[in-house]
Amino acid sequence: MRAVMFEQYGEPAEVKETPDPTPAPHGVVVRVEATGLCRSDWHGWQGHDPDITLPHVPGHELAGVVEAVGDRVTAWHPGDRVTVPFVCACGTCASCAAGDQQVCERQTQPGFTHWGSFAQFVALDHADVNLVAVPDGMSFGTAASLGCRFATAFRAVVQQGRVAAGEWVAVHGCGGVGLSAVMIAAASGARVIAVDVSAQALGLARKFGAAECVDGTRTPDTAAAIRELTGGGAHLSLDALGAPATCAASVNGLRRRGRHIQVGLLPSPTGTTPVPMARAIALELELLGSHGMAAHTYPPMLELVRTGALRPDLLVTSTITLDATPATLAAMGTAPGAGVTVIAPWA
Length: 347
Known about the structure:
11 helices
């Protein structure tokens, strides 16, 4: 099969011919019809993820058609249209038994723990636990955009963040996750403030429901701007980018007893990120992480997509080929882009 591969961290990736995967007894092989290009893939290429071994094929948000199944798989068959969370759970650990597959103790992640979906085929583990049927009428590009960014944002805003109608919600960073969060929070009846340094990203945020936008290039203290706009601070704030500055701004922009959700990854040379804990203590803030979404919790999100209350298809702003992927991946370090980029490998 053809796949995007890198052999050294930070060195140019290339499209190469590689062996086709085979399914584990509990797994499947999916023929990839669309896969998202995510900033997490860039982090992996840079060597920020300890699970990756070289050489490596990235890619973790995907949709396609089941090509082959292991002999212990009971719920899926060749020809089924599927997507999958980026966390593939084992289904048997204590966390899985509690329904918390997104923090499975023995999780695998395509594109990180093993070769991913920037390829013609991808192997996925524990298919009966992890696969999600793609509804008829939903494009593979839309389905691929759900697997990491949209589902992650949905859990962060709705399940972890407990968003309520009428609340102020601040979203720091309006890439794929951030714009998804803007759309989901606005659809939930919240008043959303979008924060970014890109005029294009802020324009999309307004399109998807942001009531206010804060341009970080013109506003040195974004947290102060949020407190002023909201009359005291946001009820719920998300760092959807993953940087020390946006993490701190998210916490500092909250009102008393507000809720901060850390969604963006925070790699750091020292392994830690300073967080304004004095404010968290004084204002009794909640500081929570959010890590993907379990497959069994997809139905409410899919129903909102079906009814048109949520439009993840509108977040797809660019579609590229597999051959264009190495250069686009490299460019994410300096120009992350706005919206979601989908790779249609065989277009």
